[in-house]
Specification:
The chain is mainly α. The protein has one domain. Helices cover 81% and strands 0% of the residues. It has ten helices and no strands. Helix 2 packs parallel to helix 5, helix 5 packs across helix 6 and helix 9 crosses helix 10.
Length: 241
């Protein structure tokens, strides 16, 4: 437990040292600016959309940034020969990423409560954010594994957004309407994510909510197993071992 806490504290320190935490707060302030410029008072429909865009993209990006900074410093090489538990190392990165998404939620929600109208349960959103950020942090690991450099990571991230995120977003707001697309999107994690964020508004049926919870929980477990198994080969390759 002591080693896990030490790793977690070190992860938070690196987030500040790499300016990842500062970037996350800046993005949150940008979303607050978007809400401020929104002329409608009741932002119940818009609010989950902003959280959806932020959590699915920032979780992936934050993990990727942290990994590539460690790669440049040679930290990945030391992990292979140190007594650091691989599971603890991966978990601390996921927890730190989830924490950043939770902070964004807190900042946006309190702004909405004080300056706008919102009828969404904070704790319902909190549970959804934790699951979504956890899943996409693991996606960030996988995209990093298959990216040669940071530019490659950004390209892979854009591919993920175009394939999974944008169709789900456009379909939910009614920009795209197609029965086949609606069925196909059920196999994507972003459909489960957007359902979880709208569930606190009462706009998601019980069956869809159960599907979303099962998808993201089991998906996170399977992704973590895959990420853990592939980590040694990735660290050895990137560390020059």
């Amino acid at each position: 437990m002591d080693s896990f806490l030490a790793l977690l504290i070190g992860e938070y320190k690196r987030m500040f040292a790499y300016k990842i935490a500062a970037a996350s707060i800046v993005v949150a302030l940008i979303w607050i600016g978007v809400l401020y410029l929104t002329e409608i008072d009741d932002i119940t429909f818009i609010f989950p959309l902003l959280l959806f865009i932020d959590t699915t993209s920032m979780a992936v990006l934050m993990v990727g940034v942290a990994i590539f900074f460690e790669k440049q410093e040679g930290s990945l090489r030391t992990i292979l020969v140190s007594p650091i538990n691989k599971t603890d190392y991966l978990l601390t990165k996921v927890i730190a990423t989830v924490s950043a998404s939770v902070i964004t939620l807190i900042l946006l929600y309190f702004y909405a409560v004080w300056f706008k109208e919102i009828t969404l349960s904070f704790f319902g959103l909190l549970g959804g954010i934790i699951l979504i950020a956890c899943f996409h942090a693991l996606v960030g690991f996988i995209l990093s594994y298959y990216s040669k450099d940071f530019t490659g990571l950004l390209i892979n991230m854009m591919k993920y957004m175009f394939i999974f995120m944008l169709p789900t977003l456009f379909e939910y707001i009614g920009f795209l309407q197609n029965d086949l697309l609606d069925k196909v999107l059920y196999v994507t994690p972003t459909r489960a994510a957007i359902y979880l964020l709208y569930a606190p508004a009462g706009e998601v049926g019980g069956g869809d909510l159960d599907y979303s919870l099962i998808y993201l929980i089991l998906g996170s477990v399977f992704l973590f197993i895959f990420v853990r198994r592939q980590f040694d080969s990735f660290a050895a390759r990137e560390g020059g071992v």
